[in-house]
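Students often ask why we bother predicting the structure of a whole assembly rather than each chain alone. The short answer is interfaces. A chain on its own may look different once its partners are present, and contacts between molecules only exist in the joint model. In this exercise we take two input lines together and write out one structure for the complete complex. Read the inputs first and try to guess which parts will touch.
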Amino acid sequence: MTAEAGRPAEPVEDLLRRCAPRVLAALVRRYRDFDTAEDAVQEALLAAATQWPAQGIPDSPVGWLITVASRRLADHLRSEHAGRLREEHVFSRLTPDDQFAPAADAPPETDDTPILLLLCCHPSLTSAAQIALTLRAVGGLTTAEIARAFLIPDTTMAQRISRAKQRIRAEGATFRLPPEHELAQRLHAVLHVLYLIFNEGYTATSGPSLTRTDLTGEAIRLTRMVHRARPDDGEVAGLLALMLLTEGRRPARTRPDGSLVPLAEQDRSRWNQESIRDGRTLITRTLSHARVGPYQLQAAIAAVHSEAAEADQTDWPQIVQLYRLLDDAAPNPVVTLGRAVAVAMVHGPHTGLELLEPLRADARLARYHRLPAVRAHLLEMAGDHSAALDSYRLAARLTTSLPEQRYLHSRAARLAGNDRDG
Amino acid sequence: MKYLLLIYSNPENWEHPIFLHSPEFLAMSAEDRAALSDQSDTLHREIAESGELVVASALADPLTTRTVRVRDGVAATTDGPYVEIKEQLAGYLVVDCDSPDRAAEIAARIPDARFGGVEVRPIMGMSGQEM
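Now the answer. The structure tokens for the assembled complex follow.
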């Protein structure tokens, strides 16, 4: 464990956030009380953040944090109104093994981060609560940072987190891996939460977002953690690869004014090649041995895009094949939209538009902006500018994203012969 | 995804919670009135506990409204709401939900939806996807 102290270059803040889930896992495993343990860990992190820069980083940062957090936890339990009762309650839940187990401040041998994530993404919570709890308990972000990232008042976010913890306690959730038949589904929920966190931070725009926490970076860090703990899980690796490949395009996907640049028009020399290479290596390796799943297929599609030096060199036939597999593995209208674009690039816009026809009658998509956005794009390709214009305008009215709305209006303006970008 | 739920009412007396003073409510049986009050309490507890409730506020009587218009650089303030209609904005909630259907479900359980109406408006966000 002293290896962690042997990296003086790492900022204290990063070190703390890396230690946070292991410290919390150790406490929850020992004391069972997730709610109180989480508060105690936050206090220990705060103490370290103020003491370490001045006094130096201890030999075993995790051990130090566990000791301090355990003390705080004991203080909390004592200070509670029904303190004595509560302590008895906690200790009655300890198994005899626990009472003779090594001291709680001995750094844990195993990485319990996945169990912690499963707990934070408990099915009884809404996804907003799962996201908040994951960022705080596993990501080690402060409530204020999470509140800023989601543009929500601090007090509201604090309440959301505290209710989520209470709910987990009320559900009687335990700190151990769920039975095998539940595990896959529960792990899928964790990946979905990480995916949502990634998407939330995916648009880098100027202005107010400059103060936003880097949610995509945080999602990648957490997914890496899960991948380290479950290296053989193909979907975990697939999600990580998808994030790395998508993140690699970030420098090219917005203009300085924050407006979106579509994939076909991006300056590919501005892509982050290291991130893309890592993502491509990971997905190539994963596809060769794991059972294929939706995240892997999405990563594979992103990898094919990343291999083209210019947009017109894209291997569209291969992308069509991958979308066909994705449509079989996880059929949903969003996949059909992507597939229609790929099909249009291989067989022409009319074939793509035909694929979209059944979706137009789908009530679930009646207010979904992506359908008219894709139709507009294909209609424009087909030379039907008047229908494309209507479709772009409809999509612009339906989206609830400001950057997307700006992009769709600019496409419409370009078609109307009134190019805003001049 | 965040939604703004706008509660419109046509109150005789502007006193919150407004639905308690609506003539339709007062005409209901004591049992039904109690059930509707419970429905309101349950809803608020539920969305607070689920973390979906971001903020909720009751608005003052439209009598206290001032509407400000600036024309040719000159601000003119008039007393009263922007549009004089029978149903006025009585309060609002901001909720953070997984789907528009969930936002509509919450709106339907606000008692004022029975006597006036609740408008559900998505709040624009900064996250977007390249196309």
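Check your guess against this: Chain B is about 30% helix and 30% strand.
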